[in-house]
Write a structure and sequence with these properties.
The first copy, chain A, has helices at about 20-30, 45-60, 70-80, 100-110, 140-150, 160-170, 195-200, 225-235, 255-260, 295-305, 310-325, 330-335; strands spanning about 10-15, 30-40, 65-70, 85-90, 110-115, 155, 175, 205-210, 240-245. The first copy, chain A, is of the alpha/beta class and about 350 residues long. The first copy, chain A, has a single domain, classed as Alpha-Beta Barrel (TIM Barrel). In chain A, the strands form two sheets. In chain A, strands 1, 2, 3, 4, 5 and 6 form a six-stranded parallel beta sheet that branches. Chain A has a three-stranded parallel beta sheet with strand order 7-8-9. Chains A, B: Pfam families: Peptidase_M19.
Chain lengths: ~350, ~350
């Protein structure tokens, strides 16, 4: 199988794993070209600096294997050098606190993707887990305008229905749902409605289908079922608008799980996309236990009868185009030629 | 006079003024190519983000007149476009707090110069105003190593004698005194001893001679006296090691003066380089009241009998070479060709 993916660009639009050299070697084994790595969940501006600083150290200590990605061309460089390109992003806008100018500051630090909300309402809007979602706030509109200006990609994966629709309408540029699935295939408050995905398609945006067990049918979901979902998503969205965003969480501690779900905002146990009966890190399907298994997904798509061009588009070609354009500052857009 | 400086690159290695469009027009009138602008005095990491964010806003709002400088080539671009290049720097390492990784983070934010201490002892060393200076701390040595690695210039202008000597010895790359004078010409604890300047010269470093009235003989210092000092400094240091760092403070408030001198660290009145009899912002010499007066300095140097090449070197050529090399990451140094 591996030979069939050697010239493929594979991009995973979200991973939250425990980054060490062993993990990098698994990515390399899976032929992964580029990963959007989570650089923050609930952290404020100061704490996010520490996270970025830790990534700088990781880049330095592993420069034979990794390459920080700030623009589309960096992804091609990573492919050429056989390194893993890493895009930093936060799954929240908590790093901005209440300060509009910090969009541009964190963009300069290579935080090229921000999810507008994590699991809770924040200064910008509401999450998919809030009971009510009153949509994009006044500050939220300005943040979107500023993200559009500087070339920071807007991510709606955990964002609530109304805030998502507002954000898509407000954004002058395509937005992303880096890691979620259609909710009519796998019902979950974290998955996305036809209304959102219709708006996303109209906006020129992209969805990264997600293998996080709680967002599919658990670890027993077969590769065939997962790839059928991809085919259905492509049928709904169009071939240019679908990629992969596994939400992989490998070798993470229970302590981190508690931080991920409960941050500092509650003293009660929260289960996120899990449940009381399934409170810990989920077991992953046997066809995707580590990023070394990426070729299985390509193989599964071929088995669905997908063409080579379409498999390449879904596995990474679409994200490459999307990030190449999305990471450019607005004023660069007019004068630049696409990589593809 | 202006015609004589049109092809000259003029670099001011420190200004602390109230940056607005009027000030930019004065810089343009003076033919200034590039300024090292003070982006922090006592601010911690979080507060420095706000300062950097304000600068981003200033760059955006005045993009017809300014250009942020991250590398030597940006200074040449500024000259070619007739814009003012701006290098951000902090006059303290307070932005790093106790976190080594923040050197690389602030370097990525374009803070290309950091003064190791402002007027007080800090985590790294001591200032020229402390009674005792025990030299570079353990953390200080690591910070210098990291600044050397990433290509952030070490500034010793307000740093104490022992810490300065330690820093020069510890640094594997040339360091700067962006704004101070030889103390045997103008005695002041802020000016620099023969011992420091000898070490600086040996290190390949540079000094920017300073027109701040408290560091010369007040506003009555004549242009001739100031330029005589430059000639003497060049004689001592060698022509390649001297530039200008005016420390200009135009249109600043008394509130800012209090912050500059007293930060949050004292409730007593402090006078910095001033005194009880001269507590406010100093009056500047009539030959340097605004940056539009830069050509006067070039004129004064010619009147001292300095050659055209030497005048060009002191007015900006030396800083251009120094910053071009100094802003490169260590690993870039070997493979890059100098601009000059």
């Amino acid at each position: 199988m591996k030979n069939q993916t050697q010239d493929m660009i594979i991009i995973d639009a979200l991973e939250l794993s425990n980054w060490d050299r062993d993990f990098l070697l698994l990515l390399k084994e899976g032929g992964v070209t580029c990963v959007h790595a989570c650089c923050g969940l609930w952290e404020n501006a100061r704490e996010t600096l520490t996270k970025v600083g830790n990534w700088h150290r990781f880049f330095k200590d592993n420069e034979d294997l990794v390459l920080p990605v700030h623009k589309g061309a960096d992804i091609l460089t990573a492919k050429r050098l056989g390194k893993i390109g890493i895009i930093l992003g936060t799954q929240n806008t908590s790093a901005l606190e209440d300060e509009l100018a910090l969009v541009s500051v964190f963009n300069q630090l290579g935080v090229k993707i921000m999810q507008l909300t994590y699991n809770n309402q924040n200064l910008i809007g509401s999450s998919c887990y809030e009971e009510r979602d009153s949509g994009l706030s006044r500050f939220g509109k300005l943040v979107i305008e500023e993200m559009n200006r500087v070339g920071m990609v807007i991510d709606l994966s955990h964002v609530g229905e109304k805030t998502s629709l507002d954000a898509i309408a407000a954004s002058s540029r395509p937005v992303a749902i880096t890691h979620a699935n259609p909710d009519w295939i796998y019902p979950s408050s974290r998955n996305k409605s036809k209304e959102i995905l219709t708006a996303l398609r109209g906006n020129g945006g992209m969805i990264g289908v997600c293998a996080y067990p709680h967002l599919i049918n658990g670890h027993q979901t077969t590769l065939e079922e997962f790839c059928q979902m991809i085919v259905e998503t492509v049928e709904f969205m169009g071939i240019d608008h679908v990629g992969i965003g596994t939400d992989l969480t490998l070798n993470m501690s229970d302590e981190f799980l508690a931080w991920m779900r409960m941050g500092r905002w509650t003293h009660n146990v929260e289960y996120g996309a899990g449940s009381k009966d399934n409170p810990s890190w989920p077991k992953w399907p046997e066809w995707f236990e580590t990023p070394a298994d990426f070729p299985n997904i390509a193989q599964g798509l071929y088995q669905q009868g997908m063409s080579k061009d379409d498999v390449y588009a879904v596995m990474g070609g679409n994200w490459l185009k999307f990030f190449d354009e999305g990471f450019k500052a607005e004023k660069e857009l007019a004068k630049c030629v696409s990589l593809i």
